[in-house]
Amino acid sequence: MYQGLRYTLLLAAVALLQSLIFNQVQISIYFNPLIYVAFVLLLPMRTKPIVVLLCGLLAGILMDITMGLVGVNTCASLLTAYVRPLMLRLAVGKDNATDGGVPAPMQVGVGKFLAYATVFVAVHCMVFFALEAMTLKYIWLIGVKVVINTIATVLLIWGVASVFAPRNYNNSF
Amino acid sequence: MGAIFIILESLSLHFYANSSAYAQAKLLTASNVFVGGVNSMFASVGKYFHLATENERLVARVAELENELEAYQTAVNEYELHANLDTINLKYLHTPARVINNTVSHQQNFITVDRGWGDGVRDGMAVLTADGCMFGYVVSCAEHYAVCMSVLNTEFRASGRPTHSGEFGSISWDGKDRHFVTLSEIPKYTPIEVGDTIVSTAYSFYFPEGVRIGTVDNITNSDNSPSSTIRVRLSADFMTTHKVVLVENRDAEIIMNLEDSVKYVK
User: Residue B187 and residue A157: Cα distance in Å, rounded?
Assistant: First the structure.
């Protein structure tokens, strides 16, 4: 119950940060970090795959509505939610991945967290920017956007994770 | 699990594949019912950082219009002007509005303004900056908000021509740089130079004739094509504009109905 409330607040916080700050900051056409992916990325490692998928669906639909992008966020979120268990096993290790807890730097270590978050965010950004562009004509432009926003998003999520899951925080969904 | 993922992903891809810029605008209009108030509050804070620039533009525009008015007053017999003022049927109606949300970092960018159908705003109205530059046009309205397609939207199309020539071409944005649009299909023989001003033509439902789009930055000619491709530096600053003017072409519906009736006869 308490865990559900925490994640509801996390979703509300990252959705508000995304729509009120990061969607409004128009520094460059290359800069568009997608901080809302923190919601699915930071779900406890023991969370059932179907729950992760439904959380991805929820986050995707919510962001599609606020960004006015029909299906783009949902497609990207569903894919990353579906392959998340595989990414966790590869980046964090099978034992740690099934041990529960939040996949945050303080719990799994900075190196493993960065490996997991980078792959997760890069896959999400690839799908998001490819679908958003609606064409592969400017594939180099999509590539530059993926690289810049993967780095920016991972750094931002690191900050969110440090606040959301401080040292020794451990729980399951 | 895999089957559920495939069904959900297929559904979202189906909605994505069947969406258009108009569907996106409708979605944004619906979300503005909930987030419009919050965006409006943030826009109010943000606009203070650009007040000086915006005021300079407005003062320059006011001076320009004062000069124009002075010219009319001098040229037209004062008695005739006042006698006919009430009977003049204005073709374009102007409504000021405030930008409460505006993106430039996507391929399909939209602008949300704080005027909707309750304030007389209709789909298809032109959106100009306070100093009269092309900014976009309205694609969807709620009661007190309207979503407009920005010039910085890869689906945006308008016609443009150099001020000194009748030859016109198509204006579009390639999604790469927010400072430039492309004017294509201009015949090679058109006398045009870097620095020339590009304005809207009379063939648009949305924009009045002569609305400033930008200046010629680069001209590319190809041996295989009879037309030139011109890179146009936009006059509107999409990052700092907070006040816009919505322009309604009051004859647009009549013209559209007339053209539709001709198509029906054919």
Answer: 52
